[in-house]
Automatic annotation (TrEMBL):
One of its GO terms (molecular function) is ATP binding. This is histidine kinase. The lineage of its organism: Bacteria, Bacillati, Bacillota, Bacilli, Bacillales. Gene3D superfamilies: Histidine kinase-like ATPase, C-terminal domain. It catalyses: ATP + protein L-histidine = ADP + protein N-phospho-L-histidine.
Length: 104
């Protein structure tokens, strides 16, 4: 829940003049749950995209820069992974992969 709150808050904070759309898609592949959280915001410039998961990296006046680094840590503690894809100017997509366990 904390991870999704962080991602949704980031999407809202990145919003520009157009109306914000956040699309969440899930898929199950070979015991791996894939979750795509895609927004239609401004995207992330290629010059900073490699730093967004770094602790204390923020482009915001009052941001702590901890949201994404903590989110990735939470996912890793659940034996998953988290990455980003973004085309600057055309939105951002965070991809989370988690192992699926069948109910016994
Ligand atoms: N959906 C997004 N669209 C555009 N840029 C984003 C998006 N999500 C994250 N970013 C960029 O990644 C940076 C790091 O995000 P992170 O959530 O770690 O920190 P923050 O949002 O700046 O601060 P905090 O989460 O502590 O309020 C942001 O400052 C912003 O530049
Ligand atoms: Mg944040």
């Amino acid at each position: 829940m904390q991870v999704f709150i962080n991602l949704l808050r980031n999407a809202i904070e990145a919003k520009t003049e157009k109306s914000l759309n956040v699309h969440i898609q899930t898929a199950l592949h070979n015991n791996l749950v894939q979750i795509y959280v895609r927004d239609n915001g401004p995207g992330i410039p290629p010059t900073i995209i490699h730093h967004i998961f770094d602790p204390f990296f923020s482009t915001k006046q009052t941001g702590t820069g901890l949201g994404l680094s903590l989110s990735r840590k939470i996912i890793e503690l659940h034996k998953g992974s988290m990455r980003v894809q973004s085309e600057f100017g055309r939105g951002t997509c965070f991809i989370i992969e988690l192992p699926a366990y069948s109910k016994k």
